[in-house]
Amino acid sequence: MANTPYPESYYAASANAVPPRPALQDDVETDVCVIGAGYTGLSSALFLLENGFRVTVLEAAKVGFGASGRNGGQIVNSYSRDIDVIERSVGPKQAQLLGQMAFEGGRIIRERVAKYNIQCDLKDGGVFAALTAKQMDHLESQKRLWERFGHTQLELLDQRRIREVVACDQYVGGMLDMSGGHIHPLNLALGEAAAVESLGGSIYEQSPAVRIERGANPVVHTPQGKVRAKFIIVAGNAYLGNLVPELAAKSMPCGTQVITTEPLGDELAKALLPQDYCVEDCNYLLDYYRLTGDKRLIFGGGVVYGARDPANIEAIIRPKMLKAFPQLKDVKIDYAWTGNFLLTLSRLPQVGRLGDNIYYSQGCSGHGVTYTHLAGKVLAEALRGQAERFDAFADLPHYPFPGGQLLRTPFAALGAWYYGLRDKFGM
Fold this sequence. Notes:
Oligomer: single chain
CATH superfamily: FAD/NAD(P)-binding domain
Shape: globular
CATH class: Alpha Beta
C-alpha cells in the first residue's frame, strides 16, 4: 500500500523525531476503535485509556496528518459561533452547559502538556485585534459574555495598549485572553500519540478505514486488516471522505492557507510581538499570526471553499502579511501550505451517535484546536454512560447545505464574498 507522508510544511520540517508506526495487517479486538489520529481521536483515546478502556486508533496517513498538524497553532477559546448565538438558538439551559465547556479545551491542552511532558513550544496569551470601532464594541460585549460564564483572564486593550503587544498600526484596540496561547500543533499531536501508547493504546498509521460493518459488534475494515470493537469513534473530520455518508451531507471541507518566514532573529521578532502572544483579527475572513519557537512568523488567512489546493499560496497570503507588517518586505518565505477544516452551515460542531455504538464529532468550523480536546473528553464520558454534556452538543440543530454536495461550495463562496465585502467596508 502507498505510504502517505506529511505534506511539506514548517511543522513537518520541525517535528519532533518519532518512530514510524506500522499499518494494521491482521484482525484486532478492542473496546473502542477510533478512526483518525488527529486531536479529536487522540483526545478521545487518552481519556478512554485513562478510564480503563482498551483502545485502537486507525489513521489513514500519519498522526496529525490533517488539520491537527497543519493549523495556525493558536489556542482560541469558545466556538466558531459564540455562546450568545447558541443561547438564541437553543435556550438558556443548554447554552449554560455549552458555555461552561467553552473554555475547557485550552485547560485540557495545558494539562496534557504538563502531565505527559509534551515538547510543543506552549506559550500563553492570545489577542483578538479590532480593525474598526464596531469590532471593538463587539469585543467589549464578548468580554462581558465570557465573564458571565466565569472566564476572567481577559483584558481590553485600547489603541495605545495594543501597540505595546503588536507592532501593527491597523488596529484600533483589542482584547487579550491570557488563557489563550499557541503551540507547535504537530508536536502536540505527536506527544499525545506517544501518551496514548504509553497507556497501552495501539495506533496504526497508513491504515485507512474503508468500510464500517455496523451492528451489535461493529467491525472497521482497512485494506489489510480489521478491528472488532464494542464502540467506534469517528474522528476523521475534513479527511473522512464518504466513509459515513450521513455525515458528509451536513458539512463541507474548506482550505486555509499558511506561510512561514525565514527566522527573523530575536530583535525583529521582539519588535513585532514583544510579549510573544498570538494574534487574530476580528474580520469574518480573518488573518492570524504568531511567532514560532525559532522566531519565524507564521501567518495564515483566507478560505478556499471545497478544499482545493490553490496554486500559489504565497501570492495569496504574503500581501496580507505585508499589510500588517510592511517592515517584513525583504523577508523570505520558507514554507507555504494549505490544510482543510470542516465547515458546518451553523458553524457549530456536529456531535452524535449512529445506532447504539458509533459516536462522532466533526465540523469545528475553524475553532478546532481547543474544541477537539474537549470533544475527546465529552465522547469518552458518553461511552462511560455520562451523557449530559454529550447531549448538549448532540441536541444542537444542524442542516444540510442548500443544494446538497453539488451546490454547497458555490453557496458558501457567495456567502464568503458577501462577508468579505462587509470586512472591507467595516460594515
